[in-house]
Amino acid sequence: MQPLDILLANLLSPIVLAFVLGVIASVVRSDLKFPESLYTALSIYLLFAIGLKGGAELSQTPVRVFLGPALVTVALGIITPIIAYNVLRRTKRMDRANAAALAAHYGSVSAVTFIAAQAFGTLNGEPAEGYMPALVALLEVPAIVVALMIAFVRSKRAGSWQAALHEVLAGKSVVLLLGGLVIGLLAGKDGIEPVEPFFVSGFKGALTLFLLEMGMVAARRLRDLRTVGLYLVAFGVLLPIVHGALGVWAGTWAGMSIGGAAVLGAMVSSASYIAAPAAVRIALPEANPTYYLTASLGITFPFNLTLGIPLYFAIARWLAL
Amino acid sequence: MSYVTLKLVTIVAERILADRLSEELRELGARGLTITDVTGSGSRGVRASEWEGANVKIESVVSPAVAERIMAHVAEHYFQYYAVIVYAHPVDVVRGDKYV
Asked: What is the 3-state secondary structure (H, E, C) of chain A?
């Protein structure tokens, strides 16, 4: 397929269209509203399902195959927040607290971007490796820790660093993802077969519904675009491209397939909005949530979902030539 | 029936503070709490955990001395950076010794 056809196919996929519908619903002030418990249930289902599937795949992956990508992922988790922090500080646009807060978000992963990238690969005949969910867990934690460390080493802080670490490690995204991985790993492929109808068949439908809600949440953030200014919009698009390209390159270097390297690129480029905001709010209360939530949710997530993911696949294909 | 007049302290705070505040209230001398999910609007706007519910309302019936301690504590530790309000009003209760 031509690059433009792939881009169009992505834009017309149900998950992207559901996201757009969510944005429209919010813009026209529709009374459509997900009950809070449905959002929570969907996120639990999605995180646990990718953990389970990844664990089952991991049980069949030899350690030497997994080791390279795992080490590369941890390294990326350490480097990307440092890049983000330095970009923000050197351009003199953000104070330390806000720069560190944004660095924590751009270093860690958006699970939904990861799932969307994986779905995109499967759809286009370039599936990623089955163990990818394990990499999500590996990328999530170090980035937030590194970013908070930058903030705490540089000056005395109002927030609590231990409480923030607890928020990350015991937060629902890490517990569900890691817990699912371990269960899948212990049960093995045959072991999870009985629960597969529930966790695998319903997955894409649940994801589509979740993206509808994401559209509404992202649209609420769009109203803050004027407050955050053009600088943050540019940051929210350009930094993911740099991080994404870096991730694709590192993945290819570690011997991953085209799909795997591209999905890794999407993961590295994405900005967290479940684990990171909670941890940052506790550790760096003086950082302004409008900046980091608007950038990660209102700018970077829509960019990655529509244009970023096809771009990372194109880079991966080009590197594999 | 005989009534005792105590203070009902109410804190409305962003959700992320719920656990921390209820622990600290206990330490400051509150014997019990009621926590409700609430929404609304004020001067701050954005919530870091808005998907998990915007705000919580924490209520506790305490002695006037404890009420003062709680209000001073919240003012000192949370007013600067978090979306929090705290207020107290007198309430009549039966079994006054239950709360102090």
From this structure: CCHHHHHHHHHCCHHHHHHHHHHHHHHCCCCCCCCHHHHHHHHHHHHHHHHHHHHHHHCCCCHHHHHHHHHHHHHHHHHHHHHHHHHHHHCCCCCHHHHHHHHHHHHCCCHHHHHHHHHHHHHCCCCCCCCHHHHHHHHHHHHHHHHHHHHHHHCCCCCCHHHHHHHHHCCHHHHHHHHHHHHHHHHHHHHCHHHHHHHHHCHHHHHHHHHHHHHHHHHHHHCCHHHHHHHHHHHHHHHHHHHHHHHHHHHHHCCCCHHHHHHHHHHHHCCCCCHHHHHHHHHCCCCCHHHHHHHHHHHHHHHHHHHHHHHHHHHHHHHHC
